[in-house]
Amino acid sequence: MSKRVAFIGGGNMGRAIVGGLISRGHEPGAITVAEPLETLRSALAHDFGVNVTADNAAAVAAAAVVVLAVKPQQMKHVVQPLATILAARQPVLLSIAAGITTRTLINWVGAEIPMVRAMPNTPALVGRGATGLFATVTTGVAERALAESLLAATGLVVWVEQESQLDAVTALSGSGPAYFFLLLECLEQAGGRLGLPAELARKLAIETASGAAELARSATVDPATLRSQVTSKGGTTERALQVFMDGGLPALVERALAAAATRAEELSREFGDS
């Protein structure tokens, strides 16, 4: 029998996890989603057959796992009214909000309960997500496995040893899809300026990115080796890569990720108690 899971928030990421669970055979009747917007509730009930409600307390009343799928700025207002029931029932609390630390969540609940923080990304919507997880020391092996099984329904799952490393996960993979979308956008525009129709340039850019990622996934060597293997001396690829290097692309990427990680730390101060 499937564990009872409650989602607080039925937006894109909550929906992605729900969809992944259903596709893996989790019983729809064992899932309840609390969502204030009626349109989202109706869509979740229609598409997946799960229970829906606008009442957060009703959703978590019998749950073994409570997934907090709301924005960081909403988290305190969601968790504090549930503190009594969470402390009493001791479900696994799984948060996917950037920047809100486990210590802050424990302070809001007012008690130590099994707790896991996760940083997923939007490719979870198509089952190709990459999620970093961190568990508190009081979270047991079985509870960690339960949290992992939920996120594994949306793609790759990895654990970090220190909670601070989730800021780096946020910068790399949490925000990462947007970096690749920007590159695709730039490739499409550049292809157009070289004379390709926009639709054709877009198709070529997307398939090239998808193929390169799949090649990197299946390869037994690292990306640097793959890059050297497709870079012929004096060829077109070498010329293009030299422009990237001359423009300081590696340093630019490093600064971008550092900025994202810093913002994750700021979110903790802005919306948490740290």
Please give the structural blueprint.
Blueprint: E1 5-8, H1 12-23, E2 31-34, H2 38-48, E3 51-53, H3 56-60, E4 65-68, H4 72-79, H5 83-89, E5 92-95, H6 102-109, E6 115-119, E7 129-135, H7 141-152, E8 155-159, H8 165-174, H9 176-193, H10 198-218, H11 223-229, H12 236-246, H13 249-271
Parallel strand pairs: 1-2, 1-4, 2-3, 4-5, 5-6, 7-8
Antiparallel strand pairs: 6-7
Model description:
The protein has 274 residues and is of the alpha/beta class. The chain has 13 helices and 8 strands. The protein is 56% helix and 13% strand. The protein has 2 domains: 5-161, Rossmann fold (3-Layer(aba) Sandwich); 176-265, ProC C-terminal domain-like fold, CATH 1.10.3730. The chain has helices at residues 12-23, 38-48, 56-60, 72-79, 83-89, 102-109, 141-152, 165-174, 176-193, 198-218, 223-229, 236-246, 249-271; strands at 5-8, 31-34, 51-53, 65-68, 92-95, 115-119, 129-135, 155-159. It has an 8-stranded mixed sheet with strand order 3-2-1-4-5-6-7-8. Helix 9 (176-193) packs across helix 10. Strand 1 (5-8), helix 1 (12-23) and strand 2 form a beta-alpha-beta unit.
